[in-house]
Amino acid sequence: MYFILKPRSASNPLGWRHLASGLWMAALSWSAWGQTGNYPEKPIKFIVSFTAGGTTDILAREVANQLTQRWKVPVVVENKAGAAGNLGTEVVGRAPPDGYTLLVNSFGPIAINPTLFKTLNVNPQTELQPIALLAEVPTVLVVPTTLGINTMAEFMAYAKANTGKINYGSTGIGTAAHMTGYLYSLRTNINAQHIPYKGAEATRDLVAGRLQYMFATVPSVIPLIKAGQLKALAVSTRIRSRGLPEVATLKELGVDMATGSWFGMFAPKNTPATIVQKINKEVISILDDPEIKARLVAQGAEPIPMSVQEFAQFTRNEYETWAPIVKSSGAKPE
User: Fold this and answer.
1) Which of 106, 130, 191, 221 could crosslink 163 through cysteines, CB 3.0-4.6 Å?
2) How far is CA 3 from CA 18, 19, 29, 292, 294, in A?
3) Cβ(248)–Cβ(76) under 8 Å?
4) Closest Cα to residue 265, out of 311, 199, 321?
């Protein structure tokens, strides 16, 4: 590249200033490329805001394994459960914005917690950079098989006969399991006690019969359903789950509600756009792979590729939709 230096003159009074500005911008562009052009050059960490074994963890490990194979650098998953999913959000929100510490989280911490909590150390709506939507997932109403209930009608009769005496679990206050359970109690006039857990431990207590029912994400409980330890009564979404096609929707069974959960990937705010776009492009490629898509669908997850801009708008819309519901629930953080 050649530069012709023209001194300041009457016809070009700002010549030197324009030249200096151009050289400065070129230097910045070259510096930015140097920081991001070879990404990734070292191991990447996925922070998961819930315990191992839940849907967030399952999806994170699937994507991490695929990126490890494609990029030839280790992508490791680290579970940081606690504070209703806020702990993981804080870890990533405070991490260097270089693309090497990323967050995989569910809709609760992202769309619910900014309303649920009066203050947040890291607000996901303003201090994280959305990267990609991984999947939308229906929640399924499940009961322990030891309860001896096989249909929604039987469950409703049981709930009415034991009003105020039954418990339903969730993976934490403000999670999909909690908010769906709250809406269900409103729509059916069931009087049940909500018992929040820190993550996948809720399903263990459900199987053991210490909880009477739960709205769980399909991937987290489908093995237990197939093993005969849990009975699926209905899915929460507008259409049936491809992972459990034989299970009717709540609307089909006369309950006027339709909701689900979603899971996505985020980076610290101010992460270079080139890195964010590169990760998004690779994640979309992973989700479009027929073998991976079939595997996720079989587990009850529906991969939905989105651009960075589409996912950012999606997260804002979800926050605005759920804010009034959270307020009406009267839920308080632990």
Assistant:
1) 191
2) 13, 9, 17, 51, 55
3) no
4) 311
Is 267:99 a contact under the CB 8 Å cutoff? yes
Q: pTM of the predicted model, to two decimals?
A: 0.77
Residue 4 lies in a domain: no
Map tokens 């069974």 to a residue: 253
Q: Residue 311 in contact with residue 264, Cβ under 8 Å?
A: yes
Q: Is a pLDDT exceeding 80 seen at residue 217?
A: yes
Which of residues 256 and 2 earns the better pLDDT score? 256
Residue with tokens 């418990």: 167
Domain range for 289: 44-136+261-329
The answer as to whether 169 is a domain residue is yes
Residue 145: strand pairing partners:
none
Residue 274's CB: how many other CB atoms inside 10 A? 15
Contact criterion met (CB below 8 Å) for 247 and 234: yes
Residues 277 and 131 both lie in one domain: yes
Q: Same domain, yes or no, for 180 and 118?
A: no
Q: Establish if 303 belongs to a structural domain.
A: yes
Kindly report the CATH number assigned to the domain that includes residue 90: 3.40.190.150
Specify the DSSP class assigned to residue 238.
S
Quick one: which of 192, 191, 197, 9 has its CA closest to 85? 197
DSSP annotation of 268 reads: E
Structure tokens at 36: 């991001």
Strands of 19-127 (E only): list them.
Answer: 44-48, 75-79, 101-106
List, for residues 236-250, the tens digit of each pLDDT value.
988 899 889 999 999
